[in-house]
Amino acid sequence: MISPGIWKPRKVVSSFKRYGLGAAGLFLTLGMGLNVYAQEKAGKPKKKPLPFSWVNPLPRLELPGIEHHTFTSPSMGCEVGYCIYLPGVYPQDPKRRFPVVYYLHGGRPGNETKSIRLAPYLHKAHSSGRVEPVIYVFVNGGPVSHYNMPERKHAMGEAVFIEELIPHIDRSWRTVAARSGRGLEGFSQGGRGTTRIMFKHPDVFCSAAPGGGGYATEKRISEENGRENPQLIFAPGYNTWDLARVYAKDPRPAMRRLIHVGTKGFNYENNLAYMAFLASLKIPFDRLIVEDAPHSATRIYEKQGSAIMQFHVDSFRESAARN
Q1: Which of 146, 176, 248, 287 has the fewest CB atoms found within 10 Å of its own CB?
Q2: 305 phi and psi angles, rounded to 5 deg
Q3: pLDDT tens, residue by residue, 186-242
Q4: Are 208 and 253 within 8 A, CB to CB?
């Protein structure tokens, strides 16, 4: 039985008991993960997605610290939107630089405004002094959220994020413009994106916190040579399972990782299966199991948002101390 809360390994170990999984539990969770593609489809009724746009207006909500901005994408020649959360102390100290967490939205397609409802939780934690202030950037993941799709026009979501948005943020805002000051986080589709990117670009971020990712779907992509469904086929190896295998062969630079999921979420079992998989590769990670939380980033933040925020702050501090 897996206990709730954060578990923090200090050494890479091969025993699955250290990860809360005996041998029987390992095979059980892997078996569960095989069927979760159907659970993902059945877990919530699907809404008809809105047409994708690289720029989207802010909803009419009172969201402390949230601003909407755009930049011109060099590769596409069009405007790309992003939302930024600036902590309350940002304008008060014009010489201070802040680390940044880049947040990847769920949904396909989603957009830069989809996850900004987390702002009140960020603001409350920072204003109360429970968590040191950090900038959060809410990313637009492109028409196939957080994937590169080179065969489609203007669909290089990952590349626009890594190669264009991050440099723009570092030029435009008072950031800690180094790996030691960058974290990555996302939920659901954004959890999948966070996991792929943390293994593909470990030189860019010092921490990553994927939440509620659909790892069973990623496993299908791995096993079926890139095929998620007949209409959507990715490059071979471009998935959370194969990228983890590649990283495990040369796990540098070291990165802190926190996998979080709610016990009532429809991706709960396949997150346990993916944790077992990472353990089998001897890839260290922390985990946060949120009791009775559904597949919802806001509900998880209601219960354990401060713990996730503190994970990034601790990672920034440790990475800066090493450098």
Answers
A1: 248
A2: -60, -40
A3: 999 999 999 999 999 999 999 999 999 999 999 999 999 999 999 999 999 999 999
A4: no
| pTM as predicted | 0.86
Kindly list the strands in the beta sheet with 79-85, ordered across the sheet, starting from the edge strand earlier in the chain: 5-7, 286-290, 256-262, 207-211, 182-187, 100-104, 135-139, 79-85, 66-72
Integer Cα distance of 129 and 138 in angstroms: 22
What are the chain's domains? 5-44+52-322 (3.40.50.1820)
Model confidence over 53-107: pLDDT tens digits? 999 999 998 899 999 999 999 999 999 999 999 999 999 999 999 999 999 999 9
Distance CA 274, CA 283 (A): 11
- Side-chain half-sphere CA neighbours of 80 within 13 A: 26
CA separation (Å) from 230 to 138, 226, 234, 267, 282? 30, 10, 11, 22, 34
Q: Residue 91: is the preceding peptide bond cis (ω within 30°)?
A: no
